[in-house]
Amino acid sequence: MAKRIDVKDLNIYYGKFHAVDGVTLSVPPRSVTAFIGPSGCGKSTVLRSLNRMHEVIPGARVEGDVLLDGQNIYASAVDPVQVRRTIGMVFQRPNPFPTMSIRDNVVAGLKLAGVRNKSQLDEVAERALRGANLWNEVKDRLNRPGGGLSGGQQQRLCIARAIAVRPDVLLMDEPCSALDPISTLAIEDLITELKKDYTIVIVTHNMQQAARVSDQTAFFNLAGVGQPGRLVEIDDTEKIFSNPTQKATEDYISGRFG
Amino acid sequence: MSESSATPTPAGASVDSGNTGVGGRVPSADTTPEGPISAQPVTGNKTKVRPGDRIFRGLTTGSGVLVVVLIGLIGLFLLVQAIPSIGLDQVNFLTSREWSTNDPANLRFGILDLLLVTVATSVVALVIAMPVSLGIALFLTQYAPPKLARPFAYAVDLLAAVPSIIFGLWGLYVLAPQLAPIASWLNDTLGFIPIFADGNVSSEIGGTIFTAGVVLGIMLLPIITSLTREVFQRTPVAQIEGALALGATRWEVIRTTVLPFGKAGYISASMLGLGRALGETIALTIILLAPSTTFGGSIFDGGATFASKIASASSEFNDPRSVGAYITAGLVLFLLTFLVNFAGRAIVSGKKEYR
Ligand SMILES: Nc1ncnc2c1ncn2[C@@H]1O[C@H](COP(=O)(O)OP(=O)(O)OP(=O)(O)O)[C@@H](O)[C@H]1O
Ligand SMILES: [Mg+2]
């Protein structure tokens, strides 16, 4: 549970396009790290390379090392499927499996891992739904389709699905961007809650959200049009928002960007 | 300089987050000026119909009505022609297996045999075409490298362009001899099951329901494959990635997302194929041998389907009373195809809640 991540000199490509250049950063266990930066600077790309989701895009590849508690997830002997089982991901748009019931959505990952015991699945479903603050809202309709929930509920369902397999790390790509303020707060509270057990990396365009939920913040930027995105700086959130080292960071967070 | 102004939650940041469109987090003031656009239809005159709209609606409604009218007229034609000849029929036309229309004064025709052979041929075709099409569609959309997938898909589509008379000739003269050993093996090992029992025509020539079904199955491949492929391709990427992020292997991704998403489309594609199979004429007319006895329930029987029976008799259409017998058979085929289409639709809409 809750492992640390060390990224070393990561270069990420989409075919010939060099999308992200030379990222090096560390994420301590049981902490929240926020990725901020202008659109197109490669936040999602970096995030997706942390659980080897980047390479599912045709032609996409990664150079460099990502160490999970010292183990390189890009080592040749490592199975990407296994990596994704230990590093969970929540997407920008909630994506529950529409043909599955709420309960089956939550335990989908466990079923993939070969768990068949019904009472164990039920138990995990309840624990994960409670963990995602969704249990009370859905406990009477666990066998209804997951697509029938509201957007915020669907997103929490997706979080429940991701934590049901007890991953070491939880990656979230703008998890609140399609949600209303109430659901957003619910998810922010949840992130603070989950921090006790998980290492969390979250991409967000919402500066207050980064300030509210994260322990450290990484600012990404583009050197120019057509240039690869790069990590400008990473530091304690408090420091980034009050006294950033780089001028670009300060300009960005104070809204004087571009 | 500005260090003092920057706070943990800087005021400037809220402006930024407001317009980077964080999905309706803050109802920004920009949305109100858009009012006039939505207000216009309410305050202005009642829904004004523009000429372009009217013409287009007329055209589309017209074409829709035309189709319905055409189908109705065809049905009516069949009914009007069929009813009098049913009256002349000396045997029960639903349950009899007899078919003799040479003497217009003594018409003896029943559709049971035709119905059974038609259904049997189509079922054999579907049993072959459904799994193979599913495999091809999955291969093309999930496994084949894009460079290979395109020409391969094109080749499968080309299969639909081969005229059915070619399929018939190829089936009888090329495929049937190849199938003969398989047929005799099935007959030898599984002959105790009625559908694999000895047939009523010579198995060497291969004019059997089995041969006809295999050829028909090949003819259905492009139909079922192309529709199924389209549906599979439309599986939302978000769902595929959701499964991958949970640690699904490629096959598990297919099982959890592609198949559930495409199931209804696959079934309706198969139903469409079945509709096509029921009415296929010329290939079956060439392949199927007319036996001296009636259909005994084995796929190694010969026989005639509705369509092949009508086609092979068409040269002898001289007395309107005997023609009526064939039209009656046509009417049943028409209804059967309708039924299949309805069944397909019912299956597709059955699990609507989950889509
Ligand atoms: N599938 C893809 N194929 C090719 N290029 C891509 C693909 N996805 C992203 N890119 C490119 O990679 C760069 C980084 O994109 P990325 O999605 O990581 O940005 P981001 O920081 O997440 O932006 P946003 O804030 O808008 O989500 C962009 O230039 C983008 O155009
Ligand atoms: Mg992004």
Short description:
The complex is a heterodimer of chains A (about 260) and B (about 350). Chain A has about 260 residues and is α/β, with parallel strands linked by helices.
Features:
heterodimer, A: 258 residues, six-stranded mixed beta sheet, four-stranded antiparallel beta sheet, 10 helices, 10 strands, globular, B: 355 residues, mainly alpha, MetI-like fold, two-stranded antiparallel ribbon, 12 helices, disordered N terminus, binds adenosine-5'-triphosphate, binds magnesium ion
Please tell me about this protein's structure.
Chain B: It is a multi-pass membrane protein. Chain B: One of its GO terms (biological process) is phosphate ion transport. Chain B: It is found in: Cell membrane. The complex is a heterodimer of chains A (258) and B (355). Chain A is built from ten helices and ten strands. With 258 residues, chain A is an alpha/beta fold. Mean pLDDT of chain B is 83; it is low at 1-43. Chain B is globular. Chain B has helices at residues 11-19, 35-43, 51-88, 112-143, 146-159, 164-190, 209-233, 237-245, 250-279, 282-287, 306-313, 320-350; strands at residues 99-100, 108-109. With 355 residues, chain B is mainly α. Chain B has one domain: Orthogonal Bundle (MetI-like fold). The two termini of chain B are 57 Å apart. At the A-B interface, helix 2, helix 3, helix 6, helix 8 and helix 9 of A face helix 1, helix 8 and helix 9 of B. The complex binds adenosine-5'-triphosphate and magnesium ion (MG). Adenosine-5'-triphosphate (ATP) binds at residues 14, 17, 19, 37, 39-45, 57, 229 of chain A.
Record field, number of beta strands of chain A: 10
The domain tally of chain B reads 1
Question: Which cofactors or ions or other ligands sit in this model?
Answer: adenosine-5'-triphosphate, magnesium ion
Helix content of chain A: 25-40%
Through-space gap between termini of chain B: 57 Å
Stretches with pLDDT under 50, minimum 5 residues of chain A: none
**Helix share of residues of chain B?**
55-70%
Strand content of chain A: 25-35%
User: Biggest interface pair, residues each?
Assistant: A-B, 56 and 42 residues
Number of separate strands of chain B: 2
* Assembly category: heterodimer
Structural class of chain A: alpha/beta
The CATH class of chain B is identified as Mainly Alpha
- Output the radius of gyration of chain A: 18 Å
Please mark out the parts of chain B with pLDDT under 50 across 5 or more consecutive residues, or reply none: 1-43
